[in-house]
Each structure stands twice: as C-alpha cells, then as structure tokens.
Amino acid sequence: MSLLSVDELAVTFTAKGRKDFQAVSGVSFSVDQGEVIGLVGESGCGKSVTSLALMGLLPSKGVRVGGRAEFDGTDLFGLRKSQLRDMRGTQLAMIFQDPLSSLNPVVPIGVQVTEILSRHRGLRGEKARKEAAHLLERVGIPDPTRRLKEYPHQLSGGMRQRALIAMAVACAPRLLIADEPTTALDVTIQAQILELLRELVDQEGTALLMITHDLGVVAGLCDRVNVLYAGKAVEVAERRELFASPMHPYAHGLLGSIPRLDSPRGQPLNPIRGSINDQIAWADGCAFAPRCDHYVMECLTGTPQLTEPAAAGHGVRCVNPVRDSSDLDVPHLEAPVMDTTGSEATTRHPGGEA
Amino acid sequence: MSLLELSDVKVHFPVRKGILFDRVVGHVQAVDGISLSVEAGQTYGLVGESGCGKTTLGRAILRLVDITDGEVVFDGTDLAQLPEEEMRRSRRRLQMVFQDPLGSLNPRQNIESILAEGMDAHGIGDTREERRERILKVLDRVGLPDHALGRYPHEFSGGQRQRIGIARALVLEPDVIICDEPVSALDVSIQAQVINLLEELQEQLGLTYVVIAHDLAVVRHISDVIGVMYLGSLVEEAPSDDLYASPRHPYTKALMSAVPVPDPEVEDTRERILLTGDLPSPSNPPAGCRFHTRCPWRQPTRCDTERPGLTDIGGGHKVACHFVNEIASGELAPTSALAPDMLGDSESPVDDPGGDSAGDSGEGEDAASGPASGAPGSGGKAAGTNA
Amino acid sequence: MSTESNEPREPREPDTTPADGAAAPETDAPEPGTTGSPAASTAPTASTAGDPPATGAERTDSPLTKARMSKGDKIDRLAQLTARRETSSGDSLWVAAFRRLRSSKMAIIGAVIIGVFVVLAIIGPWIAPYSPTAQSWRGEVFSNRGIFVGPRAENWLGLDNLGRDELSRLLVGARQTLLVGIVATLIGFVVGALIGGVSGAALALGGRVGQRIDAVVMRFIDMMLALPSLLLAVSIAAVMGQSLTTVMIAVGVVQIPIFARLLRGSMLAQANADYVLAARSLGVKRRRIVLAHVLPNSLGPVIVQTTLVLATAIIEAAALSFLGLGNLDAAQPEWGVMLAQSQRFFDQAPMLAVYPALGIIITALGFTLLGEAMREALDPKLRS
Fold first, then answer.
1. Does the distance separating the beta carbons of A192 and B274 come in below 8 Å?
2. How close C98 comes to chain A (CA, Å)?
3. Residue B285 per-residue DSSP state
4. CA distance C88 to C96
5. Are C89 and B62 an interchain contact pair (Cβ–Cβ within 8 Å)?
6. Residue C12 has pLDDT above 50, yes or no
7. Is residue A332 very low, low, confident or very high in pLDDT (cuts 50, 70, 90)?
8. In this predicted structure, which of A47-61, C61-75, C97-111 has the lowest mean pLDDT?
9. pLDDT of chain B, 387 residues: tens digit per residue
C-alpha cells in the first residue's frame, strides 16, 4: 500500500463564455515512504496544477477535479475543507518556486514558523521559539535565533527557500510536494537545496513529490519519473531506465535537445520542432504528434493509452515508441506546413537537417 | 588586435539617499575591473550566478549603463569616451538580444514597426519598400513567415518572440551581438531551437557573440572562450573545452560540479563540491580574494588580504587564484574540517548587520553554513565527494 | 483513413471512450494505463517490445513503411486536426482592448448611459417642451406658502419654485453639466499630462539634469496635492468670481496633480521596461523613445482616469454650484445649480432636488462603469 496513490487525475478549468480547458487528464502515480517521484515537463504540461489539486489549493469555483487521490487510505478529494486544512502541514506539505512571495513580507521568519507550530502542534511561547530555532538549524540556517527575528527580505534566496522548507517540515509531514523548488535559485544554491531535500528523504523517510522542468535535477534526485505532456503522463519509468532508454519521442527528444555539460562540443543540438502550441486534442490522437518525427496514422486516430511495452514499470503512451536510438536515424517524415500563428516556425525544422 | 577589447572596466552604481540634495552613501560594485578580449567571429561566453555583474557588463559594452572607469575598445575606438550621439550611432554595429522575449518587445508595435525602428534610427533604407524587403529577408533567416509582419508580439509563442528579438538585432547587420541570457526564459525544447539558430547565423554571417548566461551547459555548448565571473570580476577564463576538462579556480570547480547533468549514471558518481553560503553583497565585497568567504581551499594567508589577478597559466587559460598550482597538483586539498571552520570565520568579514544593502541587489549578504552543518553524521561531506 | 490502420485500434475503442466522455465511468474503470491489463490494446507494440533489440529494429520498419505509404493521408489528417480556429491576426493592443470592452456588460451599460446623456445634452434645447426660463406658471406656485405643482399632464415633472417647467430645465441643463465635466476634465488632463509627461520624460531619460527638473516639478505638484481639493476650488472661485467658467477651471485645476502624478509614475515604470532598453540598444534617439515607446504604453491608466474624473468633475461642479459658486444665470440651467436652488424647498418639494441629483448620480455612474470596464480591458495582466 503506497502512501499516496493518484489515479487518473483530471483537472478541468471551466470559465463562463469560454471553452473548458482540460489542464490535466489521466495522470496516475503513487508515492511510497522514503521515495522520490518526479513529475517533469515543460510549461503548460499540467505539473503544477497536479500539485495544487493534490494539496486542495485550486479555487473551488471554475475548476472541476476528477479521478482519485488516496493518501494513506483517505480520499483527498472527498475531504471537507477543514479536514484538508488539518492534513496540510501535518501530513502533506508544499514548497513553492518563489520563496519570497511565499513568505509574508511584513512578519518575521520566527513568527511565521512558530505560527505553524502552534497551529498544528500546539506549541506556545518559549517552547515554540526553541523548536523553531531547532528547525532552522535543521535545514542549515546558521545562527537560527538571530534569523528568527529577521524579515524575509533580509534573507538571501537560498536562505528563504531553507526557511520555507523548515516551515514545510515543521510538523514532520509524511509527504512533501516540491514545486520547482530550485528554479529561482542559482546552481550552487540549487545544489545545496537538493542535498537538503535528499537528506530529508533519506533520514526521515519523507516521501517527496518533485515537480520540475529540469531533467538534470530529476536525474540526480528522483527514483521514478513521470514525464508529462499536455496534461497527460506520456512516459513513466524508473530514473535509470528512463534516461538510458527513453521510449516516448517527446522524452527522447527532450534528452537530445539539452546541451549537456559533459557532451562533446561542436555538434548542433537536436531540437524538438514546434512548440507546445502545436498540439491536437488528446481525443483526436496524440497531442505530441504535430511535433513528432515518429508519428504514424494511428497517432491521429484516438487517444493513445499508457502501456508497458518494455521492462515492467516502464510505461509509455505512444503507438510508435522509440525502441533504440538508431530509430531516429531513419529519414524524418515531413511535417505538414501549418499556420505558424502561435507556433514555432515549422517551415524549417533544424532537427531534420541535423 | 581583437574586435572587442575591454580593459579594467568598472561599473559602480552609486547608492543615493536624500530627496532634493542627494548624497552618495556607497557604491554597488557591479563590475569591478574586468579585462577581456573577443576575437572577430568568435563566441565569448560569460557565465556566473545572479548578481555577479555579467548582465551589467554586457550593458556596459553598449554603454546602456554608465562606465565608471576603464576602456571598451571596439574596432579601434574607445566606446567609453565617445560622445553620446556618436555612441548612439555606433550601436548599429553592436547589438543586443535580451532575456525576456516578451518584455523586450514593445507590445504596441507590430513586427514590421519593431524591425524598422533600428533602420529608421540609423538611416538605413530609403523607401518603405526597401526596408520591408530587408525585413522580410531577415525574417526568413530567423525562420519566421512573411505574414508575421503585421502581427503583434503577444500573438507569438516564446520561441518566436526570441526569434523576433534576434531579427531586430540582425536587421542592422551588426558585427557583434551581445546575447543576455538568450534562452533562459524559454522551455527546454525551444532552447535548442534558438541555440541552433544562433549558431547557424554565426556561421552564415560571421557574427561575433558575447553570450551571457547562468547555464554553464548552454555557455559551454555555444562558446569558444568562456569567462567565469564572480562578484564583479573574472575568476577564470579559458577556451571552452579546456575549461571543462580542467577547471582550475575553486569557484569554477564548484560551479561545474553543481550543474545537474541529465544522466543518472553521471549524477550518482560525480564528485560534488558543495559551496557553503551565499554570494556576498557587491556593495560591500570581501577584502582580498572575493571568493575566499566560500572557498573550500581557502588558506590562512594571502586569500583574505591580497586580491589575486588574472594570470595566464598557459594556453590562454587564465586563473585568478593565489594557490592555483598547489590545488592542481593536489598539494592542497579541501579539508573536510573546513566546513565548520568556515562557518565561524566567514561570518565576520562579510557580515553586514544593518542588512540595508541586501535589498538593493536582491542578493543576500551573509555567508552561511553548508546544508549539512546541522545534520549529524554528514557534516564532513559538505566539501567532499558525494558518491 | 485505411482499414489497415484502423484495425489494430478497434479493441482500444472501449478504453478511449470513457476518457472522452463523462468523468464518472472513467474513475471507476480499472486503470488501463498503469496495469496494462488490456492485452489487446497493447498488441501492436507489445509484440515487438519483448524481443531483443536486433529483431526489434527490424520490425520497427514495418510501421514506418506503412507510414510512408500513407504519408499523404497522414499529413492531411494532421493538418485537419491542427487546423486552428482562425486567430484574429494583426490585432494591436488597442483593438484587442476594444474588443474586450465590447463584450463587457459593465462597459455596455456605462456606454448606454453616457450615450443617452450626450444625446440629451445635444438635442435637449430642441426637445424641451417649454422654455426653461419662462416662468409661465408663475401664478400657480407659491414657494413661500409651500404650494408646489407636481407632475401633471402638461408638465411631466411638475414646476419649480418659480413656475418653470422642470423637465425642460433638466433637458437643457444636461448640456451645461456635460460641458462642465468635459472642460474641467480636459483642463486637468491636458495640463496634468503635460506636467507629468515632461517630468517623467526628464527623470526617465534625462540623466542628472532630468532628475533635478523632475524633483522641482514634483515638489510643486505635491504642494498642490497638499491643499484640500474643495478648498482649492473655492479659493479659485473666490478669486475669479462667480461663473460657470470659474467652476470649470476650479474643478479642472484640482485634477491637475492627479493626472501629473499618474502619468509620471506610469512613464517611470515603462521607462524601466526591457523594450525601452532594447530601443536604446538599437540606437533609437531619446525623443523617439519617449514619444513612441514610453508615452503610448503609459497612457492606459491615464485614459481610465479620464473617464473616472469626468464623473467626479460633474459631481464636484455640482458641489461648487451647490455652495453658491456656480453660475446663477437663470438662462443657463445646470443640474448642480438646480440642486442648490431646490434645497430651500426640500421639505415641501423633495422631488425638485431628487431629479437633478438622480441625473448627476446616473451620469457619474455611467462614466464610472465605463472607466472600470476600460481599466479591466486595458490591464495587460488580463490579456488572454
């Protein structure tokens, strides 16, 4: 029994006078104690919406959440608001991308931390202050008693993110959801924060749901990875398996398009053509097909399902997956010339010329 | 003679207080004595973390910020000394591509008007048709359709907007393009498209690039020579491959080890040097070597008193470190006991109790301990191998 | 679409339909994705997956060859699926804002109110049933004895205290009221925008000298702001004497610092925008940067303010008239003056105050609604 299991999560935004927009459809995964699950994808893939849906932080108006999310046997979507509030902080906690706007600018750090301690753990006064100082120390903030009196703007970006993590782990939550926790930080600071998260998982057995666009971060931290595209998981695999043999053309293409620090120089990158705007509705076929070098007729007729063609636990939502890297040496199929409004230039696709 | 040569360029921003009669209460030393040269047809990559002054340096080359001191010699002329109007005219040959593709395009101008503006300012093209023809040629070069002309920036996607930004620079047929974080605002799959475009254009047009970025992998991919900046000065400069193969400055080593590589095998086995603390404030930089407050190889002598200059160690590889040879030979090793020691020591020289400058640059001022310092049993790992 | 490509898809059909249809059956379905149980659906790919890579590569050829054969079909199909709803092309922000404005209920109501008001102001004197100044029913009204004439067949809104037709006075008065609002707002807008524009341009792009100019101008504006607006208007009126012009100028002057501050602040924000930096790096001259980039992008909030000020100007002009500083010329009825004059008889004839008051309130509401709608339409954050 896993700690959190999400089954066919679907989030639809409904606004009056506009067509419904399905931000997430068909995302399923489970997280165990001490496990790090990655949700990776580019902007607009629905990864942040997924995390907000799990935390119950989506607005109740204009949003329809479908599917199931069970946390330790309780249905998260069936909870009343007050029950959910109690769970947030004690059982589930979240770390956001922008540490500055996630902290109240006019309240000292110490007050913000002790507030959580008093709300969820009933600690007051000196006891709460001591525990707060201990928490800051735990996440690697030096001189915690002085820091408690400081305001968020007096801390650096890395320190703020540590403070946020301290607040998130204040009640020893069993699941931590980190939404792009290092995107706003410099690489050397990012390395520190990732190290801290790794420690939390290793030592406390916290389960971590890591949401990021950075495949490098995923490679170093996550046990299992869900690659999302246009609101659906297109590939699910153990991390080594994913990076060694990505099967979905999107995942394959992403890995090929990133300049790597350790790759030989002088070769042009292999970009995926088009942009996220070039997509077809999942109901009509594979949303990635317009950008795919690999698409066949079946890709354009009906929603592809997440299947397990290879090793157990490696799922891919594709009818014509990449089987080995030589696959992509096959002469590329011409893409149709589309109206390029709102899309990347499709008249040229460097990937084909490479 | 290189095409672009900077010598001892300084950009200090005065910090002012007062309403009618302002007085200068200090300086933010955004760029503090940088010398470098860029050869024609080459790509010079400037890499560093936020607040290191790389963006300011890029703007200083175009004199979009006032240069406090030093020379920016472009094709034999010192731009720093040019009168305003002449500088404006010489900007035709030095162009810039910005980080935020949407923000750097006027939302109320259509693409034709955006691209025609530079030609207008420099008197290129006599008739509207002549300009339009030139614009269409450039649009084709950057991979945008002709019917983009009458559209507005908000009607394009991020990658296309960046292509417009590149086209705007190209239409003036510049010699040098300064690319300030050209891809960092774009999605991963789009980044590669723009990087490839920049490389193609360089090949076809013989452009010279100064690429400013925080992403070492991007900079390494695109650059011939890389300069690593830390707190307003260069700490290391080397040919791209050389820098990757043998980074010499402790900061470069740390930076490189911190860049995540999308490969679990590499991630699991590589040596990781975790730097402790944050960037000190550029308005109150540490004395001596600016990196000494965070350096895992810091020595008790020289480092905190004497500022090392950028010296050539052979093959165009320049390093600003007193102990570069000792570190390379393994004579000096980062001691595991260093981390807790540093905590105590590094706090004092950079500690800025008022904290008033912290808000200016958005950077923290204090050095701090490593993430492991509070955790029992792993304190020793902070500066060591992380297998 | 060939039958061949359709065939392997058949068994998948039951899985896809619930995903497309209602949400309820979808959740109850036995997770086809994660378990991979429907063997049939995975058939086309699963057969090759188990094989060693060598043969796998061989087999991958088959779907690809098939793909080449049906390439034309495929491209047609993809083009058909990606065909976009015709996006409005080449719309400037102004046009887009106007389209948003058109679809806003608030804007429509506001515009209708303003429209009716403007039409009345223009044609009022012609459609007024009687002369607004002729005291035709002088003998029927005795204000000192509390005898008033209410609505009746020949005078729809009754008579005022001097026996004049109230409806005619209201209709003719609309023009004066509109005139006061527009002229006062124009004075505030033109002078304020000029001061604010110069100040903002100087500060944004004028270097140290510009900073000094801005500092001096802004301190002057601050001084204007420091005076209570009504007091300022009263003093102006006191100096210039009692007339409609006085009211216009007084109300207009009060708006000057508001417009100046607003435009300056807006320009300052725009001057720091990246596209201004980009224009500088292109070598565009300063004057053009201010005129072509900074100014047009700063105007949004100022335009919104204009409509809101129109509303307050009408109210403030009425207030000044009410205080007895407005035009007392009986030949020129004006809603504010009418309101002021009716106060003495409020006990006996409250409707004489209610009519002009309602007129002022509804008109002000119209401008406010339109202003608010414009604020929303012009807000770049709400751009869709």
1. yes
2. 18
3. P
4. 9
5. no
6. no
7. very low
8. C61-75
9. 789 999 999 999 888 776 556 677 888 889 999 999 999 999 999 999 888 899 999 999 999 998 999 999 999 999 999 998 999 999 999 999 999 988 999 988 899 999 999 999 999 888 889 999 999 999 999 999 988 898 888 888 889 999 999 999 999 999 999 999 999 989 888 999 999 999 999 999 999 999 999 989 999 999 999 999 999 999 999 999 899 889 999 999 999 988 888 888 888 888 788 887 777 888 888 988 999 988 888 888 888 899 999 999 988 899 999 998 888 888 887 754 344 333 333 333 333 333 333 333 333 333 333 333 333 333 333 333 333
- DSSP 8-state symbol, A128: H
The interface predicted TM-score (ipTM) is 0.83
Query: CA C16, CA C4: separation in Å to the nearest integer?
Result: 19
Which residues does chain B have within 8 Å of residue A275's beta carbon, measured at their own beta carbons? 157-160, 187, 189-190
Give the best residue of A135, A138, A269, A278 to mutate against chain B (max B CB count within 10 A): A269
Considering only CB atoms, which chain B residues are within 8 Å of A213? 187-188
Q: Which of A11, A30, A296 to substitute to test the interface with C, most C CBs within 10 Å?
A: A296
Give the C-alpha separation, B213 to B178, whole Å.
11
Biggest CA-to-CA distance, chain C: 114
Interface of A with B in 120-139 (CB under 8 A): 137-139
The span from the CA of A253 to the CA of A276, in Å, is: 14
Instruction: Nearest by CB to C57, from A10, A323, A336: name it.
Output: A323
Task: Using CB atoms within 10 Å of the CB of residue A311, give its burial: 0 to 12 exposed, 13 to 18 middle, 19+ buried.
Answer: exposed
What residues of chain B lie within 8 A of the CB of C279, using their CB? Answer: 106, 117
* Nearest residue on chain B to C212, alpha-carbon basis: B20
Take residue B54 and report the two structure tokens written for it.
């790389």
Q: Higher pLDDT residue, B40 or C210?
A: B40
Is C277's CB within 8 Å of B104's CB?
A: yes
Q: Which residues of chain A make contact with C32, given a CB cutoff of 8 A?
A: 305-306
> CB-based contact (8 Å) between A108 and chain B?
no
pLDDT tens profile C313-322: 888 887 887 7
Confidence at residue A309, expressed as pLDDT on a 0 to 100 scale: 56
Find chain A residues with C-beta within 8 A of C49's C-beta. 309-310, 323
Q: What is the 3-state secondary structure (H, E, C) of chain C?
A: CCHHHHHHHHHHHHHHHHHHCCHHHHHHCCCHHHHCCCHHHHHHHHHHHCCCHHHHHHHHHHHHHHHHHCHHHHHHHHHHHHCCCCCCCCCCHHHHHHHHHHCCHHHHHHHHHHHHHHHHHHHHHHHCCCCCCCCCCHHHCEHHHCECCCCCCCCCCCECCCCCEHHHHHHHHHHHHHHHHHHHHHHHHHHHHHHHHHHHHHHHHCHHHHHHHHHHHHHHHHHHHHCCHHHHHHHHHHHHCCCHHHHHHHHHHHHHHHHHHHHHHHHHHHHCCHHHHHHHHHCCCHHHHHHHHHHHHHHHHHHHHHHHHHHHHHHHHHHHHHCCCCCCCCCCCCHHHHHHHHHHHCCCCCHHHHHHHHHHHHHHHHHHHHHHHHHHHHCHHHCC
Is the CB of C23 inside 8 Å of chain A's CB atoms?
yes
Taken in order of first residue, the domains within chain B and their CATH numbers are 4-229 (3.40.50.300), 253-386 (no CATH)
Reduced to 3 states (helix: H, G, I; strand: E, B; else coil), residue A56 is coil
Domains of chain C in start order, with CATH, are 6-90 (no CATH), 102-382 (1.10.3720.10)
- Name chain A contacts of B244, Cβ cutoff 8 Å: 261-262
